[in-house]
Amino acid sequence: MTRQAPPRVLTVAGSDSGGGAGIQADLKAMLALGVHGMSVVTAVTAQNSLGVQGAWELPVEAVQAQYRSVVDDIGVQAVKTGMLASAELVEAVADLLAGTDAPVVVDPVGVSKHGDSLLAASALESVRGKLLPTATVATPNLDEVVQLTGVRVESETDLSRAADALLDLGPRWALIKGGHLAGDAVDLLTDGTETHWLRAPRHDNRHTHGTGCTLASAVAAELAKGRDVPGAVSAAKAYVTGAIAAGFALGGGIGPVDHAWERHRPGR
Question: Among 113, 177, 225, 237, which one carries the catalytic annotation?
Fold first, then answer.
């Protein structure tokens, strides 16, 4: 008997040759969470545990063709966006998302874990004006919040102000990731009316490459499985917390989180 296909999730993002972030992290997280991951590659990076040595964006036509190929034949239950690199790619992807009947998780990737720029400054206005209004959930880190809204978060009390500024740009829900703050790892999820504070213990592990990509992909996977936004984000936070705790050394720099950490637990 042929098995019924699992929920389908599409990632529109850049490739990380080191396998820790980007498309590679997205597909690993989706597999771990029981959905079928598909991809639209927007850019290719030469990247390892030490940083990004080079990046080359794909032509708009190639991105559009990949997207239409997947969506028109296979269909999607959720879409996640990551590295889009240029204003032209941001606008093309935003147009595609606007015509797709599925929840969208926008990870507005601006810089890598190592501080390398992954978004042209000229693309910021396109992210604000075209991409964020398509988002069911937007998941910026604190550096990306500053880029997009000008709000600098220096303590937990600033998270609400950042979320309000992000919601003004059009996403239905804002998930402000406070992982760069001191203390527990606290994130704020809100749609302007309903608010959820998500807390987890901070693990003493420097190997956290791919955390943002993994969280956004996990949210998309849970949405595709039918959870509402608060339930999807809560489940994704728990998954990523485990992946961070199990992160491992790779190369000479920052290693990745362990997307298969649940399989690697003792007794499994």
Answer: 177
Q: Is 177 a catalytic residue?
A: yes
Please confirm, yes or no, whether 195 is among the known catalytic residues.
no
* Full-model pTM: 0.94
What is the rounded distance in angstroms from the CA atom of residue 27 to the CA atom of residue 16? Answer: 12
Per-residue tens of pLDDT for the chain, all 268 residues: 788 899 999 999 999 999 999 999 999 999 999 999 999 999 999 999 999 999 999 999 999 999 999 999 999 999 999 999 899 999 999 999 999 999 999 999 875 555 556 667 778 899 999 999 999 999 999 889 999 999 998 888 889 999 999 999 999 999 999 766 767 778 999 999 999 999 888 888 889 899 999 999 999 999 999 999 999 999 999 999 999 999 999 999 999 999 999 887 776 6
Catalytic residue among 110, 212, 247, 255: 212
